[in-house]
Amino acid sequence: MAFYTRPLPRALTAAALASLTFLLAACSSDEELVYEEQPVEELYNRGYTNLLDGENDLAAQLFDEVERQHPYSVWAPKAQLMAAYAHYQDNRYDDAINTLDRFIELNPGNEDVAYAYYLKAISYYEQISDVGRDQRMTELALGSLEDVTRRFPSSEYARDAQLKIDLARDHLAGKHMTIGRYYLRQGEYLAGINRFRIVVEDYQTTAHTAEALHRLVESYMALGVTTEAQATAAVLGYNYPGSEWYIDSYALLTGADLRPEEDRGSWISRLF
Q1: N- to C-terminal Cα separation, the chain
Q2: CA distance linking residue 193 with residue 263, whole number of Å
Q3: Ordered alpha helix ranges (H), 186-243
Q4: Burial class (CB in 10 A: 0-12, 13-18, 19+), 258
Q5: What are phi and psi of 262, to 5 degrees?
Q6: How confident is the model at residue 214 (pLDDT cuts 50, 70, 90)?
Q7: Which helix (H) or strand (E) holds 112?
Q8: What would the pLDDT profile of 41-93 be if each residue is shown by its tens digit?
Q9: 161-169 long-range CB contacts below 8 Å, 24 or more apart?
């Protein structure tokens, strides 16, 4: 199964198009939307033609007209989903998400509801910023992606959603690491320890865990809490024996005539 950066709704697939019994209406790219009563098929097809031509804003307006003029038509939910996709194509993520939320609320049993959840998640996911900025969008993306895998585990969207969940979690862990390193540089060791513990406890499967353990060793040594430093280094050595982070932690301990040593009473030993 291939996944696309710009995922297509079922209404755009060849199978769905084959079921249409009418031709697409011609529509020029500079056409202005005229708000007048029109047949549902004409409105929908004009919207679809504009979508293919890259006229996403006009396409969204036409799909909205389908829903407004023919709210009880079988085309209304299809048009609603297509309007969301047109907004998404135009990078108007808020409009896409609002439209998708309304589609999900009004059509919970629709055959395309899994796609609606997925497109909503992608709309959040594509707004994720670098770790130096606020990660609220990452958290929203993660929650929405988890919705997809939980509600539709056997759907065609679940595998891609899971991959993006892993990336989103790694991103959030990276944010905590960035803040923790800052605290460490400033000598605010307790604040740094809190961040590194979050990574170790909540994001243990990410690529940041080994470094987080090493930074904990550094912080504990700076505070003189050598028992915790030794226990953390022991966990680091057991789980990442050949990593550069364990080598650095080992050197830090041995430089103070200490060795990694398990402490079953330590939180880190109990966690691992």
Answers
A1: 36
A2: 18
A3: 189-202, 209-223, 226-239
A4: middle
A5: -65, 140
A6: very high
A7: none
A8: 788 888 888 899 888 999 999 899 888 888 888 888 999 999 999 999 999 99
A9: 161/118, 161/121, 164/121, 164/122, 164/125, 166/205, 166/206, 168/125, 168/128, 168/138, 168/141, 168/142, 169/142, 169/203, 169/205, 169/206
